[in-house]
Design brief:
This protein has 68 residues and is mainly alpha-helical. The chain is 78% helix and 0% strand. The protein is built from 2 helices and no strands. The longest helix is centred in the middle third of the chain and has 40 residues.
């Protein structure tokens, strides 16, 4: 009676795969963001060091790393 439609809806809910691809894309985006943060931050530090060396060589003042 009341349990049959509820059980049917639960089965349909768990067998539905429409949202699965959206979740997969979200996971991929999160992994890409982690990779970007892990690899770009040290690269930015190296670029800052190169520019600071160039500034000091031209009798300029070195720039400190900005605080986020």
């Amino acid at each position: 009676m009341f349990l049959d439609p509820l059980l049917l809806r639960a089965r349909l809910f768990f067998s539905d795969t429409h949202g699965a691809s959206a979740i997969e894309y979200a996971i991929v985006v999160a992994m890409v963001a982690v990779v970007v943060v892990v690899f770009i931050t040290p690269m930015g530090d190296r670029v800052l060091a190169i520019f600071n060396n160039l500034l000091v060589a031209l009798q300029g003042t070195a720039v400190a790393r900005p605080v986020p």
